[in-house]
Structure formats: structure tokens, C-alpha cells
């Protein structure tokens, strides 16, 4: 599954176009490497997303093409949520 679609389906990002923009800005990494919107996501991957002043890191648990908002949390496990330093790049 494409990274931008996973971010949208899991509700980590509200819209797929926004997910693509976030990826294009270099604010998303998969397993420590900067990822583009078309990067393939697999079960077990660690995704780090920079939202303004915080970095959220999750592990992919399931890949589904569609899911209800209430069940979206089953697609990933939150590993950590930390403040982002201004010098720190994700």
C-alpha cells in the first residue's frame, strides 16, 4: 500500500492530498529513511511523522484499503510522541 493512502486510511492525516504534501516536504520517514508519497508500506514498518512541534512514531500492524474511523487505531501502534527540536530533521 502507498504511504499517502495508509496515512489517510489510518486517519493519521485527514486527507490523501495533505498526506502527499507532508511526504513531499520530507516530514515523514519509514524505518529511519525519508519517504515519498508513493513509498510502499509493509506490516512492521515504523513511520515517523512530524506535525509542527511534535514527532509521532507508529508501527504498522495491518494494511486495509478502507476502515471506519472508530477502527482506524487497529492499523497501527503508537510507539512514541515527542517534542521536535528546531534543528532536528525527520
Automatic annotation (TrEMBL):
Keyword Transmembrane: no
SMART domains: S4
UniProt keyword annotations, A-Z: Protein biosynthesis, RNA-binding, rRNA-binding, tRNA-binding
UniProt feature coiled coil, ranges: none
Pfam family, one: S4
Segments forming domain RNA-binding S4: 1-65
A GO term, aspect molecular function: ribosomal large subunit binding
Domain of life: Bacteria
The protein's assembly and partners: Associates with stalled 50S ribosomal subunits. Binds to RqcH, 23S rRNA and the P-site tRNA. Does not require RqcH for association with 50S subunits.
Family affiliation: Belongs to the RqcP family.
Function: Key component of the ribosome quality control system (RQC), a ribosome-associated complex that mediates the extraction of incompletely synthesized nascent chains from stalled ribosomes and their subsequent degradation. RqcH recruits Ala-charged tRNA, and with RqcP directs the elongation of stalled nascent chains on 50S ribosomal subunits, leading to non-templated C-terminal alanine extensions (Ala tail). The Ala tail promotes nascent chain degradation. RqcP is associated with the translocation-like movement of the peptidyl-tRNA from the A-site into the P-site.
Protein name per its UniProtKB record: RQC P-site tRNA stabilizing factor
Source lineage: Bacteria, Bacillati, Bacillota, Bacilli, Bacillales
Amino acid at each position: 500500500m502507498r504511504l499517502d493512502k495508509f496515512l489517510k486510511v489510518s486517519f493519521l492525516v485527514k486527507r490523501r492530498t495533505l498526506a502527499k504534501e507532508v511526504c513531499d516536504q520530507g516530514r515523514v520517514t519509514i524505518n529511519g529513511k525519508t519517504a515519498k508519497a508513493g513509498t510502499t508500506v509493509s506490516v512492521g514498518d515504523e513511520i515517523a511523522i512530524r506535525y509542527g512541534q511534535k514527532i509521532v512514531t507508529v508501527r504498522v500492524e495491518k494494511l486495509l484499503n478502507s476502515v471506519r474511523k472508530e477502527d482506524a487505531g487497529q492499523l497501527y501502534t503508537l510507539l512514541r510522541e515527542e517534542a521536535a527540536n528546531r534543528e532536528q530533521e525527520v
